[in-house]
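Tokens for Methyltransferase. Go.
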Amino acid sequence: MEKADDTGDDGTAEQQVDFGRTAQDYARHRAGFPPALAERLTSYRIGAAGQKILDLGTGTGSLARLLAARGATVTGLDPAPSLLAEAARLDREAGVAVTYTVGTAERTGLPDAAFDVITAGQCWHWFRAGEAAAEARRLLRPGGRIVIAHFDWLPLPGGVVARTEELIRAHNPAWAMGGGTGLYPRWLTDLRVAGFGGVETFSFDVDVPYSRVDWVGRIRASAGVAASLPPAAVERFSEELTALITSDRMNIPHRVWAVVATR
């Protein structure tokens, strides 16, 4: 996502966020969705060879690439050309093909009933949910499915994630996205209101290995740091986070969560 408002739990706009400013760090340091997510989705008949999938808010293509590697025909949509350029580069390195287009989830400009599956990975909170859900329903064929998925770090008490979040808040008091559980019950309501049925959710936890350099880069690429702070402030933050981390190798706890619904 390129430009969006960071929103608090009450849905109010808090801060202007531009992920286009973080494209290289985003591509280099952010861990993508694990293959286990695609494996779980096969039980919902999602990701089959030849299936036409649209990935909203694709960013650097993490979820799009995962499904394309299983043989699906995937289109990735995002408002940030710089992120799509990084996505295409990562696709070439992975040996997969995804078609990318610039656009927004609320107004894609794509034809009615053109897709078997709509996905949205780590991005639904940036959308105007009612408009995005209605657009997804328009784009899906009858019986088609939508997947909203997240892959979130877990700020367990005393852990490096919790200390990292404290540092983000110290540098950026407007940041309101900390303390998460990786669960998003509001998205279920968004889908039901838009007319989707057969709503189901699942989640599982994984530990993701990070080096000190990669963790600093991953946090620098987050909404609360380089996507919203000026360069000098980002540099100061990076120096303090590097000093805070005592180990060069860490296992960072994450939660994968997804909701699946049917048109």
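The CA atoms of residues 208 and 252 lie 5 Å apart.
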